[in-house]
Design a protein that fits this description.
The chain has 99 residues and is mainly beta. It is 5% helix and 24% strand.
Length: 99
């Protein structure tokens, strides 16, 4: 069956539904969570994601943090640079490797 180039499509009318976001303890989508407070300049809020590592006999899920953006360059982190990460309880400190 061929369709013509100038054929118009009919759209389905969908009424607008006003939905109020409310905190829901059973919801895990994140859209129902109350908004987080705005951070001061120079701070970023990221979400830790999951990464699947598959090996020959098993697989596991590990936490993963991805940092990307022009703000890294403005902070002195250029591509091909090396970094040192210091891990402390509840903190990761990232420094340029100047050695």
């Amino acid at each position: 069956m061929r369709t013509q180039k100038n054929q118009t499509t009919t759209s389905i009318f969908r009424p607008k539904v006003d939905q109020v976001k409310q905190p829901n303890k059973t919801c895990t989508c994140g859209a129902c969570d109350p908004p987080k407070p705005k951070l001061p300049a120079g701070m970023r809020r990221l979400k830790i994601q999951q990464k699947f590592i598959t090996q020959v006999r098993s697989s596991t899920v590990v936490p993963m943090i991805t940092l990307a953006g022009e703000w890294l360059r403005k902070s002195g982190f250029e591509y091909q640079s090396h970094i040192i990460i210091i891990e402390k309880e509840g903190q990761l400190i990232i420094n340029l490797d100047t050695a």
